[in-house]
Design brief:
91 residues, alpha+beta, Alpha-Beta Plaits, 2 domains
Length: 91
Amino acid sequence: MAIFVEVLSDNKNRTVSELRHIFTKNGGRIGESGSVAWMFKRKGYFVIDKSKASEDNLMDIALSSGAEDLRTTAATGDLYSTEKFDAVSKP
């Protein structure tokens, strides 16, 4: 199984050391930089409160931003996107 970890840190050495410790403790190991990146696709997940936008507005946002999927619940609209993260804006 491959796990892709993207981390923001002020100390790269400490972060790598901590991650290596966590993976080793649980039977895993850290591969070389970029060794599993090809297996993953960057996606965005946006949760939009339905009290702020109607279903028509949510559909317009999804279509104009090139969203991959739009799922609605009673309270929210969940938007999944693989590109154009900046194109998703407030309705």
